[in-house]
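Forwarding the complex inputs:
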Amino acid sequence: SAVISQKPSRDICQRGTSLTIQCQVDSQVTMMFWYRQQPGQSLTLIATANQGSEATYESGFVIDKFPISRPNLTFSTLTVSNMSPEDSSIYLCSVGDGASYEQYFGPGTRLTVT
Amino acid sequence: QKEVEQNSGPLSVPEGAIASLNCTYSDRVSQSFFWYRQYSGKSPELIMSIYSNGDKEDGRFTAQLNKASQYVSLLIRDSQPSDSATYLCAVNAGGYQKVTFGTGTKLQVIP
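Prediction (whole assembly, two chains):
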């Protein structure tokens, strides 16, 4: 499976600011996904990012709040904009195996908004 | 709404016993099923995939799928304290790579 890295691993941010999270994969992948996992909760899909096209957002998530870039087949960013304490969460990127539908996760970014 | 349901637990089993984790799903067209293990503070790790009815074994892990009953399970034989984690069931409806995750079952293996 692919090796996935995320930066930063954690951050503490002030209300009203924005944070960009990077996801790097060591091989080319078609589909990348961004998830949020709030404390004690399961994974919630934010959006799907395909290279060369606009990200597809899930219900309850909008581009203005969570803009995503996917400039090539090994990299993606998720920005959390105008943050509030409710955005405190772990943000995870994953990559999809097109043949098997399996997904593999990066180590996550732990975000705390004060 | 497509749902994946799991008992949140905790499920406590003694070391060496069989741990049985269960998952039901609502979307009848679901085709791919996954079990992830998540240690506290870590990201989910894929441990089993199953696509057809029946059993699939990998070491101490066995995944069981019954599409007629919309039920998938994970058996862990000879449970070890290192198996203590939250186990997430995930389901894909096919045709698109998005998967839906259950809320997870916390497993505690007691030495």
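Chain A touches chain B through 20 residues (CB under 8 Å).
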